[in-house]
Amino acid sequence: MTNALALSLSVLVVPALCLRAVADNPVRDNTCFQIAAPYSPEVDIDADMAIVYGVNDTFPERVAVWREKGYAVGMMTGIAWGAYAEYFGAGETFKVDEVQTRSDGSLFLHGPDVGYNVPTEPYIAFMKRLAERAIDQGVKTIYFEEPEYWVKAGWSPTFKQAYETFYGEPWQAPDSSDEAQYKASKLKYKLYYDMLADVCAHVDAYASQTGTSVECAVPTHSLINYTHWQIVSPESRLLDIPQLDGYVAQVWTGTARTPINYRGVLKERTFDAAFFEYGQMLAMVRPTGRKVWFLADPVEDNPNRTWDDYKRNYECTVIASLMWPDVHRFEVMPWPERIFRGKYSDVGLESKVGERQGIAADYATQILTITNALNEMHQPDVRYDTGTRGIGVILSDTMMFQREGPGHSDWGMGHFYGQALPLLKAGVPLEPIQLENLGHGALEPYKLILLSYDGQKPPTPDCNERIAQWVEQGGALLYIGNGSDPFHDVPQWWNQNGKTKAKAYESLFARLGVAQQALDAPQAAGNGFVRVLPERPVALSMTPDGPEKVRDAVAALLKCMGEPFRTQNYLCIRRGPFVVAAALEESISDQPFTLEGEFVDLFDAALPVVKNKRVAPGEYALLYDLEWARNKGIRAKVVAAACRVRNETFKDAVFSFSARGPKNTTACARIVLPAPPSRVNATPAVDVERRWDETSATLWLSFPNSARDITFVIELETKTQSPQA
User: Fold this and answer.
1) CATH fourth-level superfamily of 27-327+329-376
2) Angstrom distance (rounded) from CA 688 to CA 677
3) Which of residues 9 and 606 earns the better pLDDT score?
4) Could you tell me which CATH number the domain at 391-560 has?
5) How far lies 516's CA from each of 56, 442, 482, 643, 723, in Å?
6) d(CA 121, CA 195)
7) What is the pLDDT at residue 223?
8) Of 31, 144, 147, 685, which has fewest CB within 10 angstroms of its CB?
9) pLDDT at residue 15 greater than cutoff 50
10) Percent of the chain with pLDDT over 90
11) From CA 522, how far away is CA 428, in angstroms rounded?
12) Closest CA relative to residue 703, chosen from 582, 584, 607, 566
C-alpha cells in the first residue's frame, strides 16, 4: 500500500465532525414509534411522531391518517435492504450482481427477493426518488435505517468492481488474509458512508426547493452489536455528513441478549450489554449537537419467546437506557401492531406446548405507563448513586474491520467486555468514548480511561497523540494488551504500511515514555499516570480472576491521583422525580439494596405507592419520587399514567387534564392532589374506578383507553363540602 493510498483510507474512519446544531424544528419529537400498518385505534399510543415505514402506493394515505390523528409524521425505509422490487426486480429478473454475496455464492437476503445491497449509482438514484416521494407528502424527518454490510460478504461482481476501482489493484478474497479483511471492511464502510452522504444532501436540497425543511436520521445498531454480529456500518463516520441530524439507537432485547463472557461463563447479560450499547451510541453524538433517540422493544424480532421473557428483557433495556440522562428522546417501541395485536406463548416454546395469546392487560398497562414517563425524561436535576464516576473505555469503528480473516478478533467480544464488565459489575458506570471523536473534546469529562488495541486499531496517528496529551495534562491511562493481536501486522500507518514490525500502541508508549515499571505499577507521565496490564482482554473475560486484575489496576491509578475507588452492587440515577435503579448480578455483593422514601412504582401496572423499595440482584426499578414532588412545591399533577397526559391545569380547587391511549387497553393513573376529590367527571363519559390514598395524598384512577382524548375534571373537597360520587 502506498502512502497516498494510506492517507486516502485514513479519511474513511476519522470524521471531520461537522458540528451541525439541531435545526430549529417546531415539531416535538421526544417520543416516536415506527409502524408499517395503517392507523388503527388499537395502536394509537399518542407519541409525538409516527414514523410511517415504507414508501409504496399506500404511503400517502397512511401519512394523511396519522397526521389527521394529531401526529407529526416521519418516514423510515431501509437503506441496505427493502421491498424494492421496482428496482431489484424479482424471480429471474432479480439483480443478483448487486446483492451482498458470500464466498460460496449464496446471497445475503432479508426475505424473498429482498437482498442486502451493494451501493451503486443507480441504486442511490432510486433511494433519492423514494425520499422525494416522502417529502412530497410533508414528512418532517426521513429515517434511513440500518446501513449494513455483512463481514462475510464481498464476493459479488459489483463489490469486486468497487474494490478494484478504489484500490487500483485486483480484488482479494476478504477471508484470504488479515490485510484483505481489513481493506474489504474499510471499503464496505466507505460505500455506505458515501451513499448516505449523497442521499442526505439530496433530501436537504429537494426539501429546500419545495420550500420546506426535512431532517435526516439513521436508525442503526450500536458499534458494539454490529461488531458482535459481524456487520460493517459507517457508525461515527456519518457525523461528517452536514445534513445528518442524528441517530436512532437500535438497542433492544434482540441485540442486548447476545451471550457474552464474564469469568469464563458465557450467557445472556441483557442489562450489561444494553448499558454499553446505549452508552456507545451517546458517545458518537456527544461532541456534535446531534440528536439521538434510544429505542426499546416490549417484544422482539424473534416471535418464539414467551411473554414473560419479553417483559423481563424489556425492563432490562428500559432501565439501561435511562442510565444515560443526557438523552431524553426515545423511540418508545417499534411495530406497536405486533405488541398490542401480536400473539405469543405464555410458556417456553422450547417445549412446544401452550397456545399463543395476546398481550396481558397488565403488561399493556405497564408499557403505556413507561411510554408516558419517557415523555417527561428531560430533567435538569440529575443525581447519581453509583461507584466511581469519570471513567471511560475507548472504542473505535475499526472494531468492525477485524471480524474475519485468519487472525479475527474474539467472536464473543472479549476484547471489549474483558475491559468493561469488571467495572460495571462493581457498580462503576463506565462510559464508552468514541476514538474518532477525540479531536472534539471527547476525553475532557474523564479522569481515567481504559484502552486496548486488541480487536481495534487507531485509525490515524492523531489518536495516539491526543491520548498522550490528555495523560500529560493529568489523566490516567490503563492500557490492556500484550501485542499479540495479528492485526497489528496489517500494513497501516503505525508500521509504515508494512515496512516495520511496530505495533499500533508503540507511538503512544514512546510519547509517554512508558518503561518496564508501568507493567507492574502506575508510572508518572507528565502530570498524569499510565499503567500497562500486559494481558489480552479476551483472557481477562475468560478467567475467574480477570475482573480483579482490571479493578486492582484501576484502583492503583486512582490512588496515585488521590481519588477513591468506590464500588457497590447497584446503580441508581435520579432524573428529577424519576428513580432508575438496577441491582447488579455477579457483583461484589449479593445483598439487596433499599431505596428509602415514598414512591409510585411504574413497573407495577396498578401504580401502587410503596415505601422503602427493596431491589435484589437481577431486579430493576423505575419509580416516581413523591417526596421530590412535594419538595418542589408540586400541588396537583398526574405523576404516573398508562396513557398520554396533556393539558394539566389547577385553579380554584379544580384540577383537570386530558388522557389518551390505545383502544382495548386499561389506563391507571396516580395523581398528587392537595385535598381529597369531591367529584371526578370524565368527558366523554367512561367508567372510572377511583381510590383516594390519604397517607400519600394521591388519587388512583382506572379507566378504559379509547384512542380519543378524555378530559378529566377533578373537584377537590373544601371544608364545607363532603365527598360525592
Assistant:
1) Glycosidases (3.20.20.80)
2) 13
3) 606
4) 3.40.50
5) 64, 29, 13, 62, 80
6) 9
7) 98
8) 685
9) no
10) 92
11) 20
12) 607
Residue 49, pLDDT score: 98
* Closest CA relative to residue 706, chosen from 63, 68, 46, 73: 46
**Angle at which helices 270-285 and 414-424 cross, to 10°:** 100
From the CB of residue 17, how many other CB atoms can be counted at a distance below 10 Å?
21
Residue keyed to cell 425505509: 77
Burial 455-474 (b: 16+ CB within 10 A, else e): bbbbbbeebbbbbbebbbee
Could you tell me where the beta strands, DSSP code E, fall in 410-455? Answer: 431-434, 448-451
Dihedral angle at the C-alpha atoms of 594, 599, 603, 604, nearest 10 degrees? 110
Ordered DSSP codes for 502-530: --TTHHHHHHHT--GGGGTS-EEETTEEE
- The grid coordinates listed for 525 are 507521565
DSSP string, 151-200: TT---SHHHHHHHHHHHSS----TTS-HHHHHHHHHHHHHHHHHHHHHHH
Average pLDDT (606-626) is 98
Q: Which three cell numbers stand for residue 248?
A: 436512532
Amino acid at 356: R
Q: Give the bridge partners for 244, in sequence order.
A: 216
**By 3-state DSSP, what share of the chain in percent is helix, strand and coil, each rounded to 5?**
35, 25, 40
User: CATH 2.60.120: does it fit domain 635-716?
Assistant: no
Alpha helices in 505-606 (DSSP H): 506-512, 537-542, 546-560
Residue labelled with grid coordinates 496517528: 461
Tell which residue, 267, 256, 264, has the closest CA to residue 323: 256
Strands laid side by side in the 637-641 sheet:
637-641, 666-672, 698-704, 689-693
Average pLDDT, the chain: 94
Domain map of the chain by residue range?
Answer: 27-327+329-376, 391-560, 570-630, 635-716
- The SS3 assignment for 642 reads coil
Q: At what angle do helices 270-285 and 307-322 cross, to 10 degrees?
A: 40
- Cis peptide before 445, with omega less than 30 degrees from 0? no
| Rounded Cα–Cα distance for residues 187 and 179 (Å) | 12
Task: Please name the amino acid found at residue 375.
Answer: N
